[in-house]
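PROTOCOL LOG
Step 1. Enter all chains and additional molecules of the complex.
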Amino acid sequence: MAKVTSKRVKGQLIPISLTINGTLHEIDVEPHELLLDVIRDRLGLTGAKRSCDVQVCGACTLLLDGRPVSSCTLLAFEARGREVMTIEGLAQNGKLHPLQEAFIEHGGFQCGFCTPGMILTAKTLLDENPDPTEEEIINFMQGNICRCTGYKKIIESILAAAKKMKASSSRI
Amino acid sequence: MLKRFRLEEPESVKDASDFLARHGESARVYAGGTELLLVMKEGLIQYERLINIKNIAGLDEVKLDDGVIHLGALATHCKLASSTLLQERLPAFVRMEKNVANIRVREVGTLGGNLSFAEPHADPGTVLMVLGAKLVAGKSSSRREIPVEKFFVDAYETCLEADEILTGIRVPLLPSHSAVAYLKFGYLERPSVGVALFLAVDGGGKSIADARIAVGCVGPAPKRIEEAESLLKGKGFDEASRLISKAGEIAGDASQAISDLHGSQDYKEHIVQVLLKRAFHQAYGQCQPGGKGQGGLHG
Amino acid sequence: MRFEKEIEILNSKEKVWAFLWDVDRFITCVPGCKEAKTVEAGKSYTAMMVEKVGPFRVEFPMGIEVLESQAMSHIKAQASGSDSRVGSRLKVEIDVRMKEEGEKTHLSLGVTVDILGKLATLGHSIIKRKADLVMEEFAQAIKNRLEGVS
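Step 2. Run joint prediction.
Step 3. Record the structure below.
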């Protein structure tokens, strides 16, 4: 195989439009740019973190059309025409999402590094399954790693958020 | 940061195949990228061109096609895991798909990509091997069907030609009074040992009409272990139960396990034996009339 | 990783010993070894080790030092090289012992391979398997060459 250097490959710009936290963005990306870098470096949304860089830990989790993806291993152009949600987009009009409140109230984070990924993934769970058992939470959240909490408080936070969300939706 | 590459987005298998034929080793098929982008990020391999095949229509369908289950190569693990057709017809396959990697990989990674990349520490190939699946590969103006046993050549190496693309996987419907069990073991990010078993019992549910055993993750590629299978075929449950440890030993020995970070060769061979035994009891129970218990994935 | 191989060659000690030092002929027996050069005969050499596993390709430009050698008896050598593209380093220690057994020469080959860097974590199993194959092919090739088969 011939040795490939960047110089041999001509630059190629792909114009994409994507919705990030409800706002339409139109940007040009090169094919090799990773979504995490575009989100963090070009858009300044630094909630998602580069941690393991091999899509195992979940710290870089973003929601793409409501589904969790590893932005460290997703090419940016794949988000074209789609909706991206980052942790920064969860609170609405200054009001925290019940998951964010629950994580605060129940000590669901210590250093906070894994937390954006945890919360976004938990949001996906609760959107899919508003009344999960502890086992279902553990199973769903298996791909998100935390080095600080030992997970107990995270599970409690998610259970509490589920309870809160059920209560408020039943009032409607 | 990835090295720069050009993106090609063909809309037909023919166009994709033509790109591959034209650019040879400097181009690679790209679908979910969940395996490919990792090795590219590590700098272990570089490509001048990635051929994005996700714009080719119809490659992600999951359907029953003339008595055969058709799995589109571009179907994500997530799509496969949530298919009602597959839950009904191939529940063990669905259970395996539900547990591939993690939720984010399942969302983006495709079955075809997983098989084509041929990472030894993977699940789908082992299960498809006992299902008698055939892999459909297409190129410019032709297509062929490849039995799973022939597909995996070595670690990271399949029998696909340079300009061939995996387009689908065809799985025959399972006969009645049969069951599949897949058990895996691992504590690192990828599975360390995977054992798949297909068992069919005779009408009375008393003796084993057919057995297919495949071992994955421990060697360079998943492997059918016919020697172990013949030990079980035609036997009644009691006799087969007595022989299952021996079958497991044979399977371990034949699996080409090597010592590495996942464990020593002896350890892996032993785990193969343990998982086969558990798979046997699980599958046999499910074969019995009325025995539709699910069983665990980890035994 | 340690590999050991016993090779029986139907040829004299003298012929086998001469073969081991004939760089150009010797490297044809080592799979993946290309462009071998003598820097100082009997002491130091360079060679390029190229290996391919599936689509992955590594190139290690190796420097080889002979540490010890006793005519017709044994050789101890050390080789190392880096592939900066994959951020890895390859270190090999080789010891060869030679014994005459009637018409045959018996070679006892011991090789210790160390991989450092990315390949060590990512490719441990692959490397081991590859190294096993290389040893196997080498043993066969050297037999063939010296027994006049190829």
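Step 4. Note key features.
The mean pLDDT of chain B is 94.
Residues 228 and 247 of chain B are 5 Å apart (CA to CA).
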